[in-house]
Amino acid sequence: MHWLKRWNSRSLASQFFLTGGIVSIGAMFLIGSLVTTMIEDAVIHNSGAATALYVDSVVAPLLPDMQTQTVLDEGSAQALDETLSQGALGQRLVSFKLWRRDGTILYSNEKELVGRTFPVSDKLSRAFAGSLEARYEIASDPESEEERKLGKPLMEIYNPVLQPWSGQAVAVLEFYETAQGLSDSLARARLQSWASVAALTAIFFLTLSALVFRGSQLIDRQRQNLKDKVGELTGLLAENQALQLRLRRSSQRAAALNESYLRKVGADLHDGPAQHIGYASLRLDSDMLVNDRTSSEARQKELSWIRSSLAEAMTEIRTICRGLILPQIENASCDEILKRVIEAHEGRTVTSVEQSIDDDGSTLSAAVKICIYRFVQEALNNAYRHGGGVKQSVTANIEDGVVRIEVSDQGVGFDPNDIRPTGLGLAGLRERVDSLGGELAINTGAGGTTVTMTLQSLEMEDVE
Known about the structure:
Blueprint: H1 2-9, H2 12-59, H3 74-84, H4 87-92, E1 93-99, E2 105-108, H5 122-128, E3 133-137, H6 145-149, E4 154-162, E5 169-177, H7 182-271, H8 273-284, H9 287-290, H10 296-324, H11 334-349, E6 353-359, H12 366-387, E7 392-399, E8 402-409, H13 426-435, E9 439-445, E10 448-456
Parallel strand pairs: 6-7
Antiparallel strand pairs: 1-2, 1-5, 3-4, 4-5, 7-8, 8-10, 9-10
Helix pairs in contact: 2-7, 7-13, 8-10, 11-12, 12-13
InterPro entries: HATPase_C_sf (IPR036890), HATPase_dom (IPR003594), His_kinase_dom (IPR005467), Sensor_HK_TwoCompSys (IPR050482), Sig_transdc_His_kin-like_C (IPR004358)
GO molecular function: protein histidine kinase activity
Protein name: histidine kinase
């Protein structure tokens, strides 16, 4: 769902602020309501108890023995009328009733209620059980019609009248008090309780928020670091897969080129030295050498032809071997390797090669040195065969293990599209450079050809 995605996209801190804020506000209202109710009940009960104690101390001596008398006599009623109509009680009490256990009103300052019986309420039952009942509310009992007409909350108190020697409730005093100042006390109690609960909730929530915020920041940083690491690993994995594919292709291409190169060497041996040696072998079996009648001069001439053919065969074999065998370059510097291959090319082709070599002495692996030698050798051979050897030059720069070599000429150039994928020259060089993670670039045109090799030297073990 859309809202769930939006929620999950938020940080843990914002999720906590929203959820924790709602829960904290709800808990604050719940706890505040409970605490406020408890405080209000305690204030009302304490106020009612104080008033009940005062009223009981004034009224109880005027009452007869309610255990033996079920009707309030006229003298007691007159004494209560006088007591309740003047003095402090007259100012504080709004109404006064004396209840019997069956719900009959034995006395009331509202004379029309005396002798009437009403249903026994829960408050009255608890009072007869010996419990003081106090309420601060608008009167709602059936017998409290006059109090209800006032339209304002009053302190309603049910105080049990206990027999001194038995402790048994023999009657219940019910009276309504104006409770001046009680509403202000309750308002202050509510305000203080709500303020206390709100302050404690805020402190608790802010403390937890600070901890969650720090934890969320730490998790976000770790998540971002993990995401970066995953991104790096994904990139490295893709690069590794690309390199593996590149390596497999290079290996397949190298195997094909190696087979083609062996066929070329076989063809060179067959078409060159083998022909001369075959010619010499045929001449050795000729009648001219085995016939006694052959003159010495003719025999020497025939042997001279044989020696000449064998000499040409040896020359061609040496030429082929020189192309196959590398000089000792493992311990040579790049500068020495380049000069050797350039001097060999100049001696073989009787041409000159301009050279510019900048070598900082970086340590190069044997594979890189071999690649440098073969690259310059093949590029110069191509410059001689296809470009006529016009203004050949070699420019090399080796710095911090990065090798960049250019071999150029100013011949007629060639079409790069004419390079056969199965060829042994530039195609083989491209595979060799590619297998080492380097790049080979060819720029050719009417003004000449430039072949550039760039690679990073790698420290790797030599394979024997």
